[in-house]
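FORM 7B: Structural annotation worksheet

SECTION A. Query
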Amino acid sequence: MIEPLVLSFALILARTGAFVAALPLLGGKATPRTVKVGLAAALAVLYFRLLGSSATPPVLADSEPVSWLVFGIVLGKEVLLGAFLGYVMSLVLLPVQIAGDYLGQEMGLALATQTDPSATNPSLVISQLFQMLAGLLFFGLNGHHLFLAALHSTFLYVPLGGLSLVPTFRVGTAMAAMMGGLSSAQEWGLVLAAPVGALLFLGSIVLALITRAAPQMNLFSIGFALRIAIGLAALFVLLPDFIFAVMRCIAHMSTLLERLV
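SECTION B. Predicted structure
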């Protein structure tokens, strides 16, 4: 009886570990590995205690001895399920990243990318600032409760060790929620960047008129500095409105992803 329980705990740890590894704000490189391992282990112990006798999946309890091939397949399914759920949860903060990348390119900061400790690729400074601000607002709004509720729903709808996700996990609903989240992320990202982007567009028109009136002026020498100044000034003036817009965006994306809960 001890061996099935150990294997069941390994399956729960695989699901929670993959979920924490793919989770935004906690699964990036900026989070220490000890914190991620501790959180995954704590969640695994919690659900192992909550599931009780049902923690041992039938596919492992009915086989004596346990087939390691079957266990490997079931373990891979648990890892994929946890990683898929963590990826879907990352859509909550995707609009802020889209807005930051768009504004950074429009301000001319794409030529000065910096190494992002929380990502594998370099990112723009504006995008990093937006993501930090959105992360603080997300935790301040108790958005992490959505992550825990989504993980809890998988243990309710997807039996541990089940070889099939149909129809218990409602794959159609999950895919619809993910596609809706992706389309909404693009839309809300442009909405967040629209006010500052409009000012940058007007600045480009002014620069074009100045160049037309005075062709001897070097557009590259003053254009980049002027666009950066306009963008930073607009961000500073519109910061309160931007914060409220990010809060509405997080609430909207959370509502879409609540279909998985």
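SECTION C. Observations
The chain has ten helices and no strands. The chain has one domain: 2-260.

SECTION D. Sign-off
Analyst initials: ____
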